[in-house]
Design goal:
about 400 residues; alpha/beta; 14 strands; about 45% helix; globular
């Protein structure tokens, strides 16, 4: 018998990754993945950037590079964070990662010993939960309302909980709920973490995808003590296939993450970073994002309107201002993991909610993605799902 490490006991298969295998079948209407719409990828422009990189500097692109990542891309990132997020930093405080998911693993490795405490929103992103679980922490969940994490509850948790090493939050269009923190709540959060001196990951994969309302400042832009570890990614605005994200943090954290990256992967892919950097040289990424937003706004609105039309009144759901998801809550007695199996029989898929809670003990939620479906599949899928839900309520 093979003897694995104790940390493997807490690592389970991702609900999303397992569902994606099933939903690859063309007859399944899938609201399960967090996928950007592939028809919106700037394929021709990326081809132009790739060709330019290969022609101008192909041998460098195909070679090893520095662990921090391709320097011109880090400069682009710093410039864009200043423009879009009011985060004023420099390339030395940025390190490239293989998407935000690798960043979560690195920060978990950096901060967490078995028994340490991670504080997060309830519900929270299951990818972060799974990334942190391998380091065997204890999780403390902070209740949320329509405006995200409840700050009075966060203050109470930090005042009464020992050994809190890390807070994880998604203030913009949260995964899975789609909720966004208002400005006052962001200010309260910064006051609270500064009072207790607890570092926090601000994960912002969806911030560019606002299609209603006004942009709100990043928490990192309010950070006076270097407590915010800011995550960004190109996965949702250019292509997830590049697997290029980044961490922006204080010097001490970046130095340690660099050491972790050296041991884990040596570096992110040079060619991918150079192609993105060249794309940003040649094209206006904000013009590209401006083409994405009306499509996502339309698909979100269509899904919400169809849910309002046909979902039973017992089903409560969020109406996001951006991002990729809406969150549905059913009566407590409905187990959406069981419901997901029934829905698949009816050729529609969603992610059941239990995976978004560290203990997996809240079973009445579901996450729906609207970004990667055509109009007819959204309408047909929501009607199919409505019938399944109504059957569970009988």
């Amino acid at each position: 018998m093979v003897n694995f490490s104790d940390r493997m006991d807490g690592i389970k298969a991702s609900d999303i990754r397992a569902l994606l295998k099933l939903t690859a079948q063309p007859d399944i209407i899938s609201f399960a993945g967090g996928l950007p719409a592939p028809e919106l990828f700037p394929v021709e422009d990326i081809q132009t950037a790739f060709d330019a990189v290969m022609k101008e500097n192909g041998r460098t692109a195909l070679q090893y590079g520095q662990t921090e990542g391709y320097a011109p891309l880090r400069k682009h990132i710093v410039d864009r964070m200043a423009k879009k997020n009011n985060i004023h930093s420099d390339p030395d405080h940025v390190i490239l990662t293989a998407g935000s998911q690798q960043g979560l693993d690195f920060i978990g490795k950096l901060f967490l010993n078995p028994g340490d405490v991670v504080v997060l929103e309830s519900p929270s992103y299951l990818g972060a939960i799974n990334a942190f679980k391998q380091y065997q922490p204890n999780f403390v969940e902070v209740p949320t309302d329509e405006n995200g994490m409840i700050m009075e509850e966060l203050d109470r948790v930090l005042a009464t909980t020992e050994n809190v090493k890390l807070i994880y939050i998604i203030p913009d269009f949260q995964n899975p709920s789609g909720r966004t923190w208002p400005l006052e709540r962001r200010r309260q959060f910064m006051e609270i973490i500064e009072k207790y001196g607890v570092p926090a990951i601000e994960d912002n994969p969806y911030g560019d995808l606002r299609f209603k309302g006004e942009y709100l400042p990043a928490l990192k832009s309010m950070d006076k003590q270097g407590l915010i570890i800011y995550f960004g990614t190109f996965s949702k605005i250019l292509s997830p296939g590049f697997r290029i994200g980044w961490i922006c943090a204080n010097e001490q954290i970046i130095e340690k993450v660099n050491l972790i990256a050296q041991a884990a992967v040596l570096q992110t892919a040079t060619v991918n970073a150079m192609v993105i950097s060249k794309y940003l040289d040649l094209f206006d990424v904000d013009e590209h994002v401006a083409k994405i937003l009306p499509v996502y706004k339309h698909r979100c609105g269509l899904m919400i309107d169809t849910m309002r039309e046909c979902f039973p009144e017992e089903a409560k759901f969020t109406d996001p201002d951006g991002g990729l998801f809406t969150w549905v809550e059913l009566p407590d007695y409905v187990n959406t993991r069981d419901l997901a199996a029934v829905a698949l029989e009816h050729k529609v898929a969603f992610v059941p909610g239990s995976g978004f809670y560290p203990k997996g003990n809240v079973n009445n939620g579901m996450r729906l993605n609207y970004s990667c479906s055509t109009d007819d599949r959204i309408v047909n899928g929501i009607h199919l799902l409505s019938d399944v839900i109504k059957g569970a309520l009988k």
